[in-house]
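Lecture notes, continued. The same structure-token format from the folding unit now serves as the input rather than the output. Read the line below as a description of shape only.
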């Protein structure tokens, strides 16, 4: 059975921190593939800094094209909004019954996991791979379950917000982005 790690995010834009983490997970766990699940814009939330869904998906596709075990997923674009992780997981399981899906999240998300829709169901039925964050460390009340595993991935605290602000200020962000994503943004007015 193929094991797929799901890395959810707005990827606004995807940066090398995302790729380093994804590659670490592929090389150090039993995942066969890692899918970047691009979250759609919530129509009820006005986010001027959020690029259109298809632009963010394009950037992820460009970023992963040289990594055969990574792919971009627009699965949530066709699901009801707001998208709840458990609904996306159920939909994927139905669509790919022969795949095993695992959830990839930062320690910061694990802290609030109990507040997520159907959190217990998610913890019982899916492997959850948790990567460290600089600002985190796990609180005493973090859920503990055989399905939840912490990995010692390198901590790369690159922030998409910071990258957007630097772009707006005309600063060089080339080292922070996959080259294809830098080229994509370089000729555009995105984030400026």
């Amino acid at each position: 059975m193929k094991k797929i790690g799901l890395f959810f995010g707005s990827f606004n834009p995807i940066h090398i921190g995302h790729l380093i983490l994804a590659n670490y997970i592929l090389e150090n766990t039993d995942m066969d593939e890692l899918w970047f699940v691009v979250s759609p814009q919530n129509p009820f939330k006005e986010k001027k800094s959020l690029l259109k869904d298809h632009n963010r998906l394009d950037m992820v596709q460009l970023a992963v094209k040289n990594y055969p075990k990574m792919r971009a997923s627009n699965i949530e674009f066709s699901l009801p909004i707001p998208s709840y992780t458990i609904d996306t997981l159920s939909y994927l399981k139905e669509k790919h019954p022969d795949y095993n899906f695992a959830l990839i999240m930062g320690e910061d998300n694990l802290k609030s996991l109990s507040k997520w829709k159907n959190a217990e169901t998610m913890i019982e039925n899916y492997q959850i791979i948790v990567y460290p964050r600089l600002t985190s460390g796990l609180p005493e009340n973090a859920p503990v379950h055989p399905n939840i595993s912490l990995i010692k991935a390198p901590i790369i605290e690159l922030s998409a917000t910071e990258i957007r602000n630097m772009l707006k200020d005309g600063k060089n962000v080339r080292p922070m982005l996959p080259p294809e994503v830098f080229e994509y943004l370089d000729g555009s007015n995105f984030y400026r």
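Point for the exam: The longest helix spans residues 16-28.
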